[in-house]
Structures are given as structure tokens and as C-alpha cells.
Amino acid sequence: MSQIVFDFKELITDCLHEPEIKFTNAISQEIDNKRFISELFQNLQLTCQEAELKELLERDHFHVVLNSYIKGKIEKLVDNPYFEFTKLCQIPLGKESRLYGNLQKIKHTSLYLFKSLVLDPNHLIYNEQNFKKLKNLTCLFSKKDCLETRKMGIKRAEK
């Protein structure tokens, strides 16, 4: 049975607020951060323990990313010129949340390594229409909200 091993050292845990490409990893203030993260990782654990990789890749929203638009958006967020975007994969972590990273086979084993890159809690990489709906944002990985998040929330609230 093949298994996915996760590497989170490349995961961007800074506040990402990119209005020009319509992406933020901030979430609504009404959502409990601890519960949100806990549910994400429970979904990740359940998803990857249930089935073989071949079966997982046949499921909705679990796939190798072939769409050049999505690859381009992630390339703008990830500042690593040596990263291999040809092995980019998306893993669903619930209804909207997605985890993007590099999926590669570990030689001479039945293991696959998933190098996590970007957490998309709002499904904004694919569906930028959701960007307009976000209000009262809070930074997911920061102890304090940054000013950019407040500005983004204010701009949307005024429209």
C-alpha cells in the first residue's frame, strides 16, 4: 500500500495578501482558528489514510494540477525559483480549503512525499469570485491581524 508523507517546511506561514491576483490566506473572523486548523488536519489525515494514491487521484479535487492559470497563480505566491511546478498537486481539506504542494515518489519505496507550499482556506486560487465575498478577515498564521487584512476587509465592506 502506498502512503503519502507530508513535509511542511516549505509551507508559507506568512500572511499572504495579494489583491492583484485575488488571493489571501486570511479567514473570516467568525471562524475559530484552532478549530479550523484542527479540522483541516483531521481531513488531511482521513483523506490520506483511506485509500491508495491511485484512488485518491480519482477523487474530486484531489489531483495533479495541470491548469496553467492555477500554476501561474501559485508561482506568483511561491518565491522559490528552484521549485518544480510540473509536480504540483492539490489536496482537498474540506469543502473549500485546499493544500497545494509538490508530490513526488520516493525511490525504491511505496512512499510519496508531498512538500506542502500554500494553504488556500477560501478556495481562491481556483475560484477568484470568492475573493469578493470575504469580509472581516483575520490572519490565519499570525497572532495579530496585520493592517493589510483590515484594509482588505474595509474595502470590501465599503463596496
Describe the 3D structure.
With 159 residues, the protein is of the alpha+beta class. Helix content is 31%, strand content 24%. The protein has a domain at 3-14 and 30-127. It has helices at residues 33-50, 53-57, 68-77, 130-133, 147-158; strands spanning 3-7, 17-18, 23-24, 27-28, 63-64, 88-92, 98-105, 111-120, 137-138. The strands form 3 sheets. The protein has a 5-stranded mixed sheet with strand order 1-8-7-6-5.
What pattern of helices and strands is seen along the backbone? EEEEHHEHEEEHEH
The residue-averaged pLDDT reads 81
Unreliable residue stretches: none
The first-to-last residue Cα distance is 52 Å
How are the elements arranged and paired?
Elements: E1 3-7, E2 17-18, E3 23-24, E4 27-28, H1 33-50, H2 53-57, E5 63-64, H3 68-77, E6 88-92, E7 98-105, E8 111-120, H4 130-133, E9 137-138, H5 147-158
Parallel strand pairs: 1-8
Antiparallel strand pairs: 2-3, 4-9, 5-6, 6-7, 7-8
List keywords for this structure.
alpha+beta; 24% strand; globular
Question: What's the short version?
Answer:
With 159 residues, the protein is an alpha+beta fold.
